[in-house]
Amino acid sequence: MGGDLSVISLIAEASLLVQLVMLCLVLISIYSWTIIFKKRAELAQAKRDADEFEDKFWSGNELNKLYEEISAKPHASRGMEGIFEVGFKEFVRLKKTSSDSNYVLDGSQRVMRIALAREIDQLEVSLPFLATAGSTSPYIGLFGTVWGIMNSFRALGNVQQATLAMVAPGIAEALIATAMGLFAAIPAVIAYNRYSHEVERLINRYDTFLEEFSSILQRQHG
């Protein structure tokens, strides 16, 4: 092993397995950052949409007009708006066929719960990867470190007099794998914790709206 301890040279001189570990961690880090930026924009948009819809819903507009405005949009409704659309549509449909208020309200709530479940699934997309990256990346890096150090000490067995200069490059290249594992894990853990909290708050908002809207429909049918 040479005496150059620059990071690039250490990576270039690392064993194939350690290099593969480093490549794996780089790919995990790149994909994690892609998810982090995408999820940040997605959750920010979801919060803006929820705020905008709540302003419209509680402004005193008639539900029929609000439904017509939403259903006229060319794109499918999402979030709180989507829950309202499917719930009101089902409410109007069932109201025409049945005078049983419990049946009508149960049917409306059922489709809104299904819509809410879809929204939850969409909001939680990619979060499991961040959790996995945060929990496994340090161990992947540690595996590369252990392997690199093991190879360094095996090489020392072939010389009569071992010196620090001989073992330092091997240990240094091995420790890079641990550093890369932490570099991949720390942002993923922070993002997962933050986004999980934001998703939970959004879900609570959706669920609260669902209950409030159900109460309004109950009064209308009562």
Automatic annotation (TrEMBL):
Main location: membrane
One Pfam family it belongs to: MotA_ExbB
UniProt subcellular location: Cell inner membrane; Cell membrane
InterPro entries xref list: ExbB/TolQ_transport, MotA_ExbB_proton_chnl, Tol-Pal_TolQ
Keyword Transmembrane helix: yes
Transmembrane regions listed in the UniProt entry: 16-37, 127-150, 170-192
Domain of life: Bacteria
GO biological process assignments: bacteriocin transport; cell division; protein import
Keyword Protease: no
Membrane topology: Multi-pass membrane protein
Domain MotA/TolQ/ExbB proton channel: 83-207
Cellular component, GO annotation: plasma membrane
Entry keywords, A to Z: Cell cycle, Cell division, Cell inner membrane, Cell membrane, Membrane, Transmembrane, Transmembrane helix
Role according to the record: Part of the Tol-Pal system, which plays a role in outer membrane invagination during cell division and is important for maintaining outer membrane integrity.
Family per similarity comment: Belongs to the ExbB/TolQ family.
Quaternary organization: The Tol-Pal system is composed of five core proteins: the inner membrane proteins TolA, TolQ and TolR, the periplasmic protein TolB and the outer membrane protein Pal. They form a network linking the inner and outer membranes and the peptidoglycan layer.
Family annotation (HAMAP family): TolQ (MF_02202)
Protein name, entry field: Tol-Pal system protein TolQ
Organism expressing this protein natively: Methylophaga lonarensis MPL
